[in-house]
Amino acid sequence: MQIAVKNISKDFGKKKNAVHAIKDITLEVEHGELLGIMGPSGAGKTTLLNMISTNERPDHGQIIIDGLDLTQLHDRDLAKYRRNKMGFIYQSFELLDSLNVKENVILPLALSRANKKVIEERFQYMMNLLNIEKLAQREVDELSLGQRQMVAAARALINKPEILFADEPTGSLDSKSATILLNYMQLINQKEKTTILMATHDAFTASYCTRVVFIKDGVVFSEIINPGNRDKFFEQIINMQRTIGGGNYFNVSQNY
Ligand SMILES: Nc1ncnc2c1ncn2[C@@H]1O[C@H](COP(=O)(O)OP(=O)(O)OP(=O)(O)O)[C@@H](O)[C@H]1O
Questions:
Q1: How close is the Cα of 143 to the center of ligand 1, in Å?
Q2: What's residue 249's pLDDT?
Q3: The model's pTM
Q4: Which residues form the signal peptide (predicted)?
């Protein structure tokens, strides 16, 4: 799906205390791109992703997907659009504690009233692919953070969304699980042409993207296109992170 973001802005708070989180950003995302959004903490990555995914309305500007201006839709139509076309992996996972793993993962298909056989097949496929089939009957509060993130990913991907939004999708994962998830995201991007937008601090994660847009203080600072070599792209991303500065995120864990 082709996404056109036109002159969007978002403020939080009022008058002199207002935070200008996003300032007049214009951006195009082509069908089948795997776009990374990077930038220092507080740059506006999550806010930008939330507006493109229509979870938050911009104060100004338009979000146009395949010619449809989503900022003109009413909440009910937007909710339907999201359910049919979009998948989400949030930082906070948003899993429902009252449901077990299987019930959480199949929820998007159950809501769109898919038949039981399809639901069961897709469920087994996703769980095997992400290597989490053993978790099927577990309760959410019995899961580690990394397991929650993988379950949230399975739920986001089960109904083959046309656009996938991911906010720090590997933030709680060890490197093995991160690699499994990133390989799968790359696979659906390449084979099914799923358009993916992903906010991340992590250069390794971003190196799976086809292009990375860097934002700083609510505006687009620069962008880099994957030269077709992940190691080289990784180096370019690290260099851009150094240039952009303002975020002490290279060795965050050493600060604790
Ligand atoms: N609901 C809110 N109310 C008030 N201010 C907010 C809200 N959401 C975001 N902000 C502010 O908007 C700015 C951008 O925040 P945002 O979460 O989009 O940044 P980010 O780049 O995703 O940061 P991080 O990498 O730390 O997650 C920050 O200054 C933040 O404090």
A1: 27
A2: 45
A3: 0.88
A4: none
